[in-house]
Amino acid sequence: MNSTEMQKSVSVQVDSDFALLLPSGAYEIKKMEPRSKLRKVILFCLLLSLFGMVAFGYFCPDQVCALSPRERVSESFALTYAETLGRPLPDVIAQPGLSYDEVLHDDFRFDLDAHDVMVFLHIQKTGGTSFGKHLVMDLDLKRPCNCQRARKRCHCFRPHSNEIWLFSRYSTGWKCGLHADFTELTACVGGELDRHEGSAVHRRYFYITLLREPVARYLSEYRHVKRGATWKGSRHWCQGRTATASEVPPCYTGESWRGVTLEEFAACPWNLANNRQTRMLADLALVGCYNGTLRHRTLDTERVLLASAKRNLAAMAYFGLTEFQKISQYVFEETFNLRFAVPFTQHNATVSGATMAALSPAQIAHIKRLNSLDLELYEFAKNLMFKRFEALKKRDSDFDFRWKHLGEVSPRSGVTEFDWDSNLEDATTEKYRGK
C-alpha cells in the first residue's frame, strides 16, 4: 500500500469511528458543524467588540477613559522631540493666529481696514519696551496712533473706524495680565477685544514677539529686580485659573527683592527668570501649567516645553532678535508690508554687557545651566531668523536701496530714544494692568 492509500485508509477509519458515536443520519451534518460554528463564534466576537467600543466611547467620561487632547499632544511632543532639534515641530496644536508662511503668500496683506489684529507677546527684558514704542509711535500709517503722554497709552485705531488693530502694552494696556505669556494671550485676546469693542468680530490674529540672548537677558532681569521690580501684577493664568502660591512661590519675603545679590538671585530654584523665554512661548497646559514648570519639573517636561516654544515661535507671524535690530526691522516691514519712519537703533553696549564682563567663568557657566532651554531656543530662533531674512532678501528686487535707506520713509522730528535696561517706564506692579 502506497502512502496516499494509507492516508485515505486512516481518514476513512477516523470518520467511521466518529460516525459510530452519532445518531443515525446525523453523520454528514455533524461533519460540517465544526467549521460553521467557528465562523459564527468569530462573527459574534467581532460584533461584540464593535458594540463594546461604541458603548465604551459613548458612556465613559473623557477624563477617565482617554487622554485629553493636550495630554496626547504632550505625549507626541515627548516622543518626537529627539527628531526635532533645530526644526519646528509638526502642527499638532491649533494655530491661534496666522503663521509666517501664510503671511508670505503673494496675495497677503495686513489689512488695517478689515479685522486684522497684531498681538505683541512682550517678554521681560528683551527690548520689548523699545519695540512697543516703535509700534505705536513710528509706523508710517494713514491714521497714526494717537499717543497720550500723561497716560503712557496710545489709541491705535483703523483708518475708518475706532476698532483696535494692535494689542500691546502701549495700545491696550495689560488686558491679559502683566507680561502675559503665550498660554494667557491665546486664551484671552479674543474675549478682551470683544468686551472692549462691544461686539464679537471674526478677526485674524498675528502674534509677534522679541527674543534676546539669554545670559544678557537674565542679567538684565537680575539688575531690574535688584532695583525693586517685582511684576506682582502677573496673573500666571493657565487652564482657567491663576497659579497658586505653592505653584509659583516667591523667592523673597517682604515687598520686593531689592538689593539681592547675583548669587541669591541664581540660588532660588523656582525663580521665574530661569528659562523665562521658553516658558513664556510654550503652551504650559501641556505639562500641567505651573505645577509642571517650577516645583515639579522633570527632564521630560523641560523637553516638552522647549519643543512647544520652538513650534510656537516658528509659527508666529513675526519675531525679532534684540541683538539684530536692523535685520529685525527689515523682516517686520517685508512681512507686514508696513514701514517704520525711523531706523531701529542698535545698542551693543548695555549695562548687562558690562555686568557680564565682570563675572567669573564659573558664574557665567552657572547662569547658562539655569537657562539651558533658553540658550537652545535662541540658537533655533537665530538660525530661523537668518533663513527668513535671506529668503526675503532674495525676492526683494530693491533690496540694496531698501537696506541702505531703512527707516527713511518720511521726514520725522526725531528717533524714539530709550534704554533697554532702564526701568523708568516699566510697570513692576499690578497698578498698570488693564488700564
TrEMBL record:
Q: Does the keyword Transmembrane helix apply?
A: yes
Which Gene3D superfamilies is this protein grouped with?
P-loop containing nucleotide triphosphate hydrolases
Bilayer topology term: Single-pass type II membrane protein
The molecular function terms of the Gene Ontology recorded here are: heparan sulfate 6-sulfotransferase activity
Q: Where does it live in the cell?
A: Membrane
**InterPro entries (alphabetical):** Heparan_SO4-6-sulfoTrfase, P-loop_NTPase, Sulfotransferase
Q: Which keywords has UniProt assigned to this entry?
A: Glycoprotein, Membrane, Signal-anchor, Transferase, Transmembrane, Transmembrane helix
Catalyses: alpha-D-glucosaminyl-[heparan sulfate](n) + 3'-phosphoadenylyl sulfate = 6-sulfo-alpha-D-glucosaminyl-[heparan sulfate](n) + adenosine 3',5'-bisphosphate + H(+)
Pfam assignment, any one? Sulfotransfer_2
Which chain regions cross the lipid bilayer?
41-59
Uppermost EC category: transferase
Name any GO cellular component annotation: membrane
The protein's Enzyme Commission number: 2.8.2.-
Kindly give the PANTHER family that the UniProt entry links to this protein.
HEPARAN SULFATE 6-O-SULFOTRANSFERASE 3, HEPARAN-SULFATE 6-O-SULFOTRANSFERASE
Entry function = 6-O-sulfation enzyme which catalyzes the transfer of sulfate from 3'-phosphoadenosine 5'-phosphosulfate (PAPS) to position 6 of the N-sulfoglucosamine residue (GlcNS) of heparan sulfate.
The family this protein is said to belong to: Belongs to the sulfotransferase 6 family.
Query: By what name is this protein known?
Result: Heparan-sulfate 6-O-sulfotransferase
